[in-house]
Specification:
Layout lengths: L2 H28 L2 H4 L19 H24 L16 H16 L7 E2 L2 E2 H18 L1
Antiparallel strand pairs: 1-2
Amino acid sequence: MADDELDSGWGDLLDDLAADVRRVVDRLRNLSAARLSAPPAAATSSTTGTPDHATRAVAAHSVAQVLADATARLEAASTGDPLTMHVVPILADHATGEVIAVTGNDLIAAAGRLTPGDPVGDTDARDVVSAAAAALTDVRRRL
């Protein structure tokens, strides 16, 4: 694959991730407190295997942590600094949309500083972003 095709696919991946972040944030912001505290839909055979969670808010927090972990890996790869993981704080259920907005946009910004083939630990940037995007898509489908 030519470099421009690789870069184009990278841009598409980041655009799709940004769109999914917006969709999840909008959905979470518009869920009532009762719906946020209710269980999400069960995983199906088409989902990526993210675990079941007790509530939609817990599922959202879990994927926010996945996004934050991916961001930390990308940032360490882009700066050469040691990997430093951060724990996403557990906030009130009604704040989960904001947590996804922050962690999702941080991931997009960190990914923008790399190219898809840049090494990130034992994998590459595309794989890290793709895995985080898949987890976000899974949670969106189950909200």
